[in-house]
Amino acid sequence: MEGQNAPKKLRVAIIGAGPAGLGAAIEFQKLSFVDFRIYDQATVLREVGTGISLQPNTWRLLDLLDASRNISPDEIFRPNDQHSVQHRNGRTGELIVSHGPRATVANHLHARCFRSVLQKALLSIVDKSRLRLSSRLVKVVESASKTLSLHFEDGFVDEVDLLIGADGVRSVVRKFAFPDHKISYIGRTAYRAILPAEDILSIPNFPDAVTFWHGPTDWVYTCNLNGGKYEITVNAVEPADNARVSWGEKATLEEFRRPWKDFGPTVQAVINKVTDVQKFALFAGPRLDTVVARGAIALVGDASHPLSGAFGNGAGFALEDSYALTRSVSWAQLRGHSLKDALDLYDRVRSPHYHELYKILDEFSASDAVQKENNLSFDEAVAHTISGKWGAEYTWLYDYNIQDVWTKAAEAEDTDRLSRDTRHNVERVSHLYTVSVVAFTAFCLPGMFGALNGLGAAGEETATLSNIANAVVFGVMTVGGFFSGIICNRIGVRGTLVIGTFGPTLLAHANSFDRSLVSIASLYTNAAFGNTSNLGSWFPVFGAVTCGISAVFLWTASGAINLVVPAINHRGRAVATKFTLQNLGSAIGGMISLGLNAHGDYRGRVSNATYFTFTSIMCLALPLAATIPLPSQVRRSDGSRVIQHKFNSYQDEVKNLKKVLSLKVFFLIVPFLIYYQWDLSYMWNWNAAYHTVRARALLSTLFYLVGPAIIGQVQGWLLDKKEWSRPKRARWGVTLFTIVTALVWIYGLVVQYQYDKQEKVIDITDAVFVKSCLLFILYGLIENSGMVIAYWIIGSLGLEPGQVSSFVGLANGLGGLGSTLAFVLGAVNVSLTWQLWANVITFLSSIPGLLYIGWFMVVDDNVIQRATTIAVTSTSIAESSASSGHEHEQYVYCAKDYGSLGNV
After folding, report:
1. What is the CATH number of domain 429-631+653-868?
2. Which is more confidently placed, 536 or 198?
3. Nearest to 761 by CA among 695, 821, 709
4. Which fold has domain 10-415+888-897?
5. Using CA atoms, how far apart are residues 147 and 145, in angstroms rounded to an integer?
6. What's a BP term from Gene Ontology annotated to this protein (predicted)?
7. pLDDT at position 599
8. Parallel, antiparallel, or unpaired for β 137-142 and 148-152?
9. What ranges do the domains of the chain cover?
10. What is the CA radius of gyration of the chain?
C-alpha cells in the first residue's frame, strides 16, 4: 500500500514507439514502482517499410510478453517446405544454400509478416494513456542530481530518472549520450515494394519461399507476406551524391532497376513487375563499447547497435534489449541497488552480444576483401559471398535465449556481490536460518503438545477436561487473532515470536506455541494429584487462557515470517517445513510416549514421566526464538532483501485491518479458515475413545509422521515448482486437496459407523488396528495439507507484509473459532458420529470459496515479489528517484544539428 511515506516511483521516458519501445513499455507495466511514458514524433503510429522477420528468439519473447496471441496465422507467412531462408544465384536461379527450420516448437518457426502486424500485437497490450504522439525530442538537460529534463518541440517538458533511447539507428537519445558519435551514409540504399502475390507467383518456376537472389555485391529479396501480398526488397550500391538523408522516400523506377542488368530472367521478371517503390538510404556509425550512459540512459533496439542491417533479426534484437533492460531494473529494485547498477547489468548482458555481432561483420568485411582481390566472375563471387556470409555458423543469433543469458548474468552478479560484501557474514543471514528457527520452535512447542493431544484427551483417561481446556485455548485465539497482526506490525516478527514462546512467566514460567507449559503443567497437576488438590480444576482452565494468549502471537509471527521472508519460490516449502518439523516433533513425542507407556494395554491416562519429558523439550523454544534475525538482516537465496513494514500509528494499522476485512478473498476464505482446524477435536477424541494407551501413542506417531512430515514436504515442493505458474499451482493444489479430503472423510464415515458397534477397546495386537492406522494416517495427511494450503494461499494474494500479518492473525482467530466450536461439541459430550458429521458439513461449506480463490484469485509470482520485496539501501532505485530540489544544469544537449532525423 502506498501512503505518505511510500517511496517515489522510478520515472522513465521511452523515446520511440517501435518494437523496442513497445516491448519495454509492456514489461515496465508489470513493475509497480515504475512510472513511464512513451514518446514518438509520429502523429499516428504506423510502421515504415514492408516486412519483418519473426525468428525463434523473437517468438519466445512474444510469448513472454503475451503478444504472440495477437498475431493470427493468417497474418504471417511460413513456406510450405518449412525452410527458413533460401539463397540462390541471382543470374542462374540455382539454389546454393537452404537453411531448414531451427525451432523445436512449431509456432516458433521463422515467419515473415508486415511490420504493422508486429506493431499491432505489441501496441494492443500497452496502456495507451502512457503514449504521447507528436512529441519530437529537441533538448535534454542533465541536473546536478542526475535527473534528466526532456524538452519537446511543442514545449512539453518531462523530468525523468531513466531515459531509454528506442528511436532507431539515427537516435537522438544516443546523440545526447555520446555527443562525439556520428552516423553516416554507408553507400548503400534499400528499395522496397509490395506487389500482388499473384503477379509474382505467375512467374514460371518461381519459388514461394523466403529467398535471397544474390549478385556479387547486391541482392534481391522476395517473400510472401500472406494476405495476397508479396514483398520485394533490394539492397544495392548507390553513390553518396544520389542518396538523401531520408526514410521511405518515393523512388523512380529507373534508379530502382539500374543495378540488376546482369541478373537472370527470374529476377528481371520480378523487378519489372514493380510499379511503385520506396527507397531507404542506409546509415551506420562507429560501434559502441557500451549501451548505457551517465547512469541514467539506456539504448535499445537499433539505437544500441547503429548498423545498417540486423541479420533479419531486428525485432528479436529489439525485444531482447527491452527484456534485459526491464529485468535488470527489476533486479536492482528488488535487491536495493541503484539505477546505475541496473544499467551496468543490462550492459554486461547486451554489449558482449553486440560485440559478437560486430565480429561477424568483421568476417563479412574480410570476405568482401578476398572477393575484390581475386577479380571473381559473377557466379564465383556469388558462391564466395554465400559461403562467407550466409553459412549455418551464424544461425545461433536466432536461437539465442536471452532469458537464460540474463538469468546467468544476474546470478553471477549476485554471487560476486555477496563475495565482495565484507559485512555479509556479520549482518546478513540466509532466509533458510529464519525458516529453520520457526520450524524448530514448532518442533519444540506444538510438536510436543500435538503428541500429547494426539494421544486423545491430552493423555487423560477421558476427554472432558482436555476438551474444556482446548475450547478455552482456541476461544482466546479467536479473540486475539483480530489484534495479533497489529501488535506484530508494531513490535516486529522477532518480538512477536518470542512472546509466543515465552508466555506469562510471572505465574507459570510457560512457553507456548499453540499450547503452553501452563496447560501441560495444569493437565499434569490434575492427572497427578486430582481435582482434590489445592489447585482444583481451575488450573487447567487458567493454563488454557495463558496458552491461547501466547499461541496467537506465535502463530501470527510464524505465518508472517514464512510468507514474506523466504525467496518467492521457497515459501511453500517454508510453510511445509514448519509443519513438517511440528509434526515430526509430534511423531517423536508419540514415540517417546509409546516408549514410556509401552505396557499400557488399557484405557486410561499416560504416565507422569510423559508430561515431564514433553515439558523439558518445550523449554528449548524460547532461546531459539530469541536468535531469529530481523527482516533487514536477512538475505534471500536470490540476493533480494526483505521488505520492512513501517509502523506509523495504531490508527493506520486499524485501517489496514479494515482493508483486509473488506477484501473479497477474505469473505470467500472464511469458511475454510473455520474448517481447517475444526477437525483436530474429532480426530483426537476418536483416538481416545477407541484405543488403548499404547495404541493411542502409536497412532499419534503415525498421524504426524507419514502424512504431514513426509508427504507435507512433497506438497510444499510442488507448490513452489517455478516451472508452473503460481495460478496453475493453485488450481491443481486446491482441486487435488478437495478430492483427497472428500475421499478421506467418506472413508472416515464408514469406519466411524463400524466403530460405533465396537465394544472392546482396540489394542495394537488386534487385527482391526490396521484399519485405525490407515485412517489416522489419512487424517494426518488432510489435516496438515489443509493448513499448508491455507497459509500458501494467504501468501499468494499479492499482499504487502503488514497485510500478511493482519491476514494471518485473522486466519488464526477464525481457525481458533472453528477449534473452539469443535471442542465445545466434545465438551458437551456430542457423540463422535455427530462430531464427524460436523466436520463433513464444515468441509463441504468451505469448498466453493476455496476453489474460487484457487482458480481465480491467486496472483503471479512477480506481483507477490513486488509486494514483499523493496529497496532498503540509501542508493536504491526508489530512493534515488525521490531526490528533489533546484536543478543545476550540468549538461545541455539540443537536437537542432540532428533535428531532421527525428525519432525514428
Report:
1. 1.20.1250.20
2. 198
3. 695
4. FAD/NAD(P)-binding domain (3.50.50)
5. 6
6. secondary metabolite biosynthetic process
7. 53
8. antiparallel
9. 10-415+888-897, 429-631+653-868
10. 35
